[in-house]
Amino acid sequence: MATDLARTQRQNGFWREMLNGWMSILTEPNLDAFRAQKTRADPLKTVLGVGLLGLVLGLWALAIKPAALVTGMGTEAALVELMRMIFFAETDFFILSLLIFFIARGFGGIGSFSQQSYLLSLVIVPLGMIITAFLFVGEKLGLTLTAVLDPLSPVGVVGVVVILLALYGFLLLLFALQAAHEMKSSAVFYTLGAPFLAWGIFRVASMFIVGEENVITTQWFFIAEQWTKGTAQELLMGHLWLVAFSVSIAIVLGVTIGVFITWPARKPKLSHLSILIPLVLFLLLWAASSGLLGEGMADQIMSTAKDWSRSLKRIDNLYFGPLLEIVAAIIAKPAAVGMIIAVFIVILYALFLAGEVASDLTLYIAGIILTIPSVALFGAMIKPLGIGPFNAAFALILYAQLPILRNTYTGIKAVMPEIIEAGRGMGMTEGQLLLKVKLPMAVPVIMTGVRVSIVMLIGIASIAAYIGNDTLGRYIFEGIYRAQEKRYYAGAILVAILALAVDYFLGWLQDRLTPEGLKGRREAA
Amino acid sequence: MIKFENVTKIYPGMSSPAVDNLSFTVPTGEICTIVGPSGCGKTTAMKLVNRLIDATDGAIHVLDERDEMSNVLEMDPIQLRRSIGYIIQQIGLFPHRTILENIGTVPQLLDWDEARIRHRAEELVTMMNMPVDFLERYPHELSGGQRQRIGVARGMATDPPVMLMDEPFGAIDPINRNILQNEFLRLQQEIKKTILFVTHDIDEAIKMGDKICILNVGGLLEQYDSPANILAYPANEFVEDFVGADRALKRLNLVRVEEVMNSRPPLLQATQDVKQAVGFMTEKKIRFAYVVDAAQTLKGYVRVKDLKGKTGWVEEYLEPAATSIQLTTNLKDALSEMLVVDYANVCVVDGQNRVRGLIDTKMIHESVIESNAVAEGEEV
User: Fold this and answer.
1) In a 3-state reduction of DSSP, which class is residue A160?
2) CB atoms within 10 A of CB A176
3) Does position B251 have pLDDT exceeding 90, yes or no?
4) Average pLDDT rounded to a whole number, residues A302-330
């Protein structure tokens, strides 16, 4: 083996052998090319190759210095400069290689240090020289380094080529490490990624520790500042309560409608009508009268509610304020509330009667509501409902019902007919069938709908800040109006964290609510 | 007792009836299987009884708890269904409820207290030869056969006098189906329910039914009779085709070995003297004889030609018997067994392998002729 190697070296010459190594790697970027090169590993070749790269870098460094400086420098000083560059190239390369070597060992690598260094140098040396040459040419053409590296500038193509070469280099390094250590490709990725990640974490942590204000830290500092002031919590609770209030109404509404549209059409009963018609009439009448003479009363109710909310907030620092504000805003508008409840009662009873016949139409309309842009819906509701939580809650309820409604419908429809038939045949009434069989079996599907709704509402609730609600969206809008990046980033970060946290909690809740017997079935399937 | 009187069902929007002028009576304590090709309305006919479907015309009477015949159409459907056991294929179990909750479905609807439901469920699970700790499991944790047993137990939870079974063993593999059928027949001998049993499988209908009701497409009753009579005297060409060309063989299904065997067979004791044995066999004019020990347990057989001129004990010349038949085996299986081993006659043994009789092909043949004669006599 050794004699073979010596013979080839004698035949080809040492430098030619080295050049062949570089060429084979650059032209055949695959694992086998590296494995073939592994047998030719030679510390001398590594040292000389890296030295060559140092020389090229040194020349480039001299070349880009202002001409006056270079000519003013003696030959001796220039040589010292070059020697320094070569020395630094060597030390940097071997320190880096040693670091990677230890990390690779940690991930189960088995190669030797000299093999690994040789394979790394095969990638770094030629690519480093080519990239340097590109930069040198760009410089000589009278372009600055920044211009060359800016992909949008006229010579941006040079920058693109450099970036592509760097990416190609990264790929080749992955191959080199895998060939040197024969480990899993994921481990190779970690080996190369670990230093970068560690450096990144260290860098970001140090930013926070020394309080350095930059593009990464500034929004976090802003959040911390808002948190100490207490504004962030207030907005967070406002956001959560708006979503929670809307979703709880949407669940009742969506599940009810979803259940209604799964059963056959019914005939109206006198007993139903004798309750519903007076109720609807009363609501409408109330709405009309309070519109005429109730504004003073409404104001009073509102101020009372606000007092409650303030005192509650003061008393035990509970974050119920936003909820009370929503309730206060709603009871302050008796006309609108009366109208809305009356209309919903009529719609619900119509769906109760129509049942399955109305299922397609209902799902279709519910879907259409979701396509209305939220800003437009908030805007359209300003006139009847004013600005503030009532308007926001109304729109959010409309948005939230679709996933819940659709999933309730699908969940119930998916219960196998044999199971329903068995229940009916054993003497369950339709109500018992619904509560004991259909709904429990549909719970996992319904809960999925609820999860989708809630996460969606957390996003839309930010936009409710546009019509004066105290939600996290306020940071976003303030940021846009004041052109303060840190504000809208902070808002976005908080909304995203909230959505993730709530979704995680709901996942846990869904698991708890799913009947035990259905869980195992899912696993078995 | 379940009594159909001129029952007709026409689905809305259909011109031809699904069940057409159906009249028959299922006597108390018997199983009536309803069988027919698809579209014959057999399931519809069954669902008319517990009013999952309401009859268009006619009346169905069911014997209620007070031993009175009442017209189901005049009863509250919910109360009616709770008083009738309803058993469908195993997929009808509620997957989200434990076995206990499944079995307790109807008792719960009837507001039994928990202790009573649990007690009854334990009783039923034991009756189905399953351990009591199954009650805490979920249906998906059980095998298909076990689920079906639970389905049967669920139908029997309140001990209803009348039960409806809709292809209960349809989704089970043939081996387990056979086991379940036998188990259920044994159970029926104890519980003596009046059962309407729907199946599409004529073999199952013959095996399970005390009476068979054969329906044709459009819900027409073609024949209602006992399995033996239907096989011996199909009422028309349709029934003849439906029961199949092998109906003569199927009749063998209906007779058990113990009914036709020779229960006083010539047997030798293992400890008998050889010469004595040869004398015995010559006297009986048989070429071989089965050998038993003192407890009547089957040991094997000996041949005359092997014993002639020998001395010693019968034991020493024993050859093991290749097969023996259980008392409750039906004639068809017995015949098949005899054709396989090619013996002139085969031992009939009980559960403890004690010899109870002998059977040969001639006895089977005679029984067929005899039953023909009996059936003819009845018809005349």
Assistant:
1) helix
2) 30
3) no
4) 65
Element (H, E) at A468: none
Q: CB of B96 within 8 Å of any CB in chain A?
A: yes
Nearest to B122 by CA among B95, B106, B100, B90: B100
| pLDDT at residue A306 tops 70 | no
Calculate Rg over the CA atoms of chain A. 35
Instruction: State whether B97 and A517 contact (CB < 8 Å).
Output: yes
Could you tell me if the ipTM is greater than 0.85?
no
Asked whether A104 and A65 are in contact (CB, 8 A), the reply is no
Amino acid identity, position A301: I
Q: Are A462 and A235 in contact (CB under 8 A)?
A: no
Supply the pLDDT for residue B372: 65
Rounded to the nearest 10°, the torsion over CA B137, B139, B140, B144 is 120
**CA-CA-CA-CA torsion for A58, A59, A63, A66, nearest 10 degrees?**
40
Residue of B nearest to A444 (CA): B96
> Is the CB of residue B316 less than 8 Å from the CB of residue B291?
no
Question: Which two structure tokens, joined as six digits, stand for B236?
Answer: 């028309």
Of residues A424, A516, A521, nearest to B52 (C-beta) = A424
Average pLDDT of B139-156?
88
| Beta strand pairing call for B194-199 and B162-166 | parallel
Place of tokens 């059962």: B195
Is residue A218, in this structure, part of any structural domain at all? Answer: no
Q: Is the pLDDT of residue A485 over 90?
A: no
Q: Residue by residue, what is the 3-state secondary structure of A218-241?
A: HHHHHHHHHHHHCHHHHHHHHHHH
Q: Both tokens of residue B320?
A: 């093991």
SS3 content of chain B, % helix, strand, coil (to 5): 40, 25, 35
Residue B34 structural domain? 2-253
Q: How confident is the model over A329-350, as a mean pLDDT? A: 83
Q: Within chain A, what is the greatest distance between any pair of CA atoms? A: 111
Q: Look at strands B267-269 and B345-349 and give their pairing.
A: unpaired
> In the structure, what pLDDT confidence band is assigned to residue B343 with cuts at 50, 70 and 90?
confident
- B378 CA: distance to closest CA in chain A (Å): 40
Amino acid making up residue A340: I
Spatial CA neighbour of B93 closest among B31, B131, B133, B145: B145
Mean pLDDT of A334-362: 87
Domain span at residue A364?
Answer: 224-515
Subunit contact B139:A517, Cβ cutoff 8 A: yes
B222 vs A103: CA distance, rounded Å? 85
CA distance B140 to chain A (A): 6
Is B372 domain-assigned? Answer: no
CA A18 to chain centre: 47
Of B170 and A458, more confident: A458
Is position A394 within any domain? yes
A421, A426, A438, A441: best mutation site toward chain B, by most B Cβ within 10 Å? A426
Assess whether pLDDT exceeds 70 at residue A75: yes
Is B104 found in the same domain as B204?
yes
Let me know whether A265 and A370 are in one domain.
yes
Q: Give the lowest-confidence range in A265-279, A321-335, B229-243.
A: A321-335
My answer on whether B187 and B279 are in the same domain is: no
Across chain A, mean pLDDT equals 83
- Is the domain of B245 the same as that of B264? no
Cβ neighbours of residue B168 closer than 8 Å, sequence gap 6 or more = B87, B88, B89, B148, B151, B152, B197
From first CA to last CA, the distance across chain A in angstroms is: 58
Rounded to whole angstroms, the Cα distance separating A159 from A143 reads 12
Query: Quick one: B87 and B145 in the same domain?
Result: yes
**Tell me, what's the pLDDT at B104?**
92
Amino acid at B7: V
Residue of A nearest to B99 (CA): A517
pLDDT confidence of residue A94: 92
